[in-house]
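Help needed: design a sequence for this.
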């Protein structure tokens, strides 16, 4: 190789070897291979050489360019490797990884799922209805007269249109019977709304589960058998229940169901968990009128219905003292159920 070219190559390799960072390396590249670089300058000499010397000089030029380019690439890789290593210096790769928190189901979801599962095993199908209801489906069809306290503006959220936020899921009974012929065996879990003062046991939005069974010859024994089985599945086989006579406009006879609550260190006490009863013939008459047929005529079918608060069931199941915990989304409380 031409002595000048050899000197340029040696100088270039020395500069590349000495470059401590990518800026210095870039500068070396410019100094030797750039437009005004030394190798580029040397290639201009080609023109001045006699013809026979040109091929050798050309080969020398190429060889020098290749050597310098290879050295640049190698150095670039070495600098990048060093930078990568420096960026992870001080990281202890033997430390255990940080755990990812695993989510869990909300207690209300769990109690609702449990309740649905038990009732579905007994042949109840899921039914739905709107949360914004009209007075017919929430009250009139359920034999609840205009002067009933539930229809008071103080107790219920009314819209200007006269519609309202349903005060109970019993409205789904009416909608289901309007839409399908007997037999009917449905449950309707969902939100219900009341203008209650919010405290440890009341919220203005809560969760109910309504049930309805209508067929020929449905009796009080069917009602009791179904609900005793339900609560014993939900809370344990030794759960004691009592059916206490009560009044609901849409059932006759009507009952409230209490279960016996055992709190360690205290006298057991009865706590109300549901309303229920045998569907009042007046409800069937309203359905016949609304449907325009008599498949639900009270001479043909009988039925039972029940409604329960899911929030309260969750509170009983897990000993939750304040219903507000169920809607505050405090993970210190909720993580206990995960
Ligand atoms: N709708 C009632 C309430 O919100 C609960 C209830 C009682 C539902 C008796 C029923 C029933 O279906 O038969 O308090």
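Sure. Designed sequence:
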């Amino acid at each position: 190789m031409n002595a000048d070219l050899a000197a340029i190559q040696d100088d270039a390799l020395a500069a590349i070897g000495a470059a401590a960072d990518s800026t210095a390396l870039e500068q070396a590249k410019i100094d030797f291979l750039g437009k005004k670089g030394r190798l580029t300058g040397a290639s201009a000499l080609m023109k001045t050489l006699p013809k026979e010397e040109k091929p050798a000089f050309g080969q020398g030029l190429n060889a020098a360019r290749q050597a310098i380019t290879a050295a640049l690439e190698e150095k670039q890789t070495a600098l990048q490797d060093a930078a990568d290593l420096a960026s992870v210096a001080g990281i202890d790769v033997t430390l255990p990884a940080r755990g990812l928190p695993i989510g869990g189901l909300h207690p209300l979801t769990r109690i609702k799922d449990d309740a649905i599962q038990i009732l579905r095993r007994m042949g109840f199908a899921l039914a739905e209805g709107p949360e914004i209801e009209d007075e017919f489906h929430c009250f009139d069809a359920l034999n609840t007269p205009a002067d009933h306290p539930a229809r008071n503006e103080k107790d219920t959220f009314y819209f200007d249109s006269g519609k309202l936020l349903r005060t109970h899921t019993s409205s789904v009974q009416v909608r289901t019977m309007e839409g399908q012929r007997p037999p009917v065996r449905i449950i309707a879990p969902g939100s219900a709304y009341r203008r209650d003062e919010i405290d440890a046991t009341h919220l203005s939005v809560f969760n109910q589960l309504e049930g309805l069974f209508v067929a020929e010859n449905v009796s009080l024994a069917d009602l009791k058998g179904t609900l005793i089985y339900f609560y014993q599945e939900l809370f344990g086989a030794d759960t004691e229940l009592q059916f206490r006579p009560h009044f609901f406009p849409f059932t006759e006879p009507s009952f409230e169901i209490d279960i016996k609550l055992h709190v360690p260190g205290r006298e057991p006490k009865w706590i109300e968990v549901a309303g229920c009863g045998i569907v009042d013939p007046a409800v069937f008459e309203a359905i016949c009128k609304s449907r325009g047929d008599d498949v639900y005529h009270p001479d043909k079918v009988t039925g039972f219905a029940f409604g329960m608060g899911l929030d309260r069931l969750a509170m009983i199941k897990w000993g939750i003292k304040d219903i507000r915990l169920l809607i505050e989304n405090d993970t210190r409380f909720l993580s206990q159920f995960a």
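Strands lie at 125-126, 132-133, 164-165, 184-193, 205-215, 241-248, 251-261, 269-279, 302-309.
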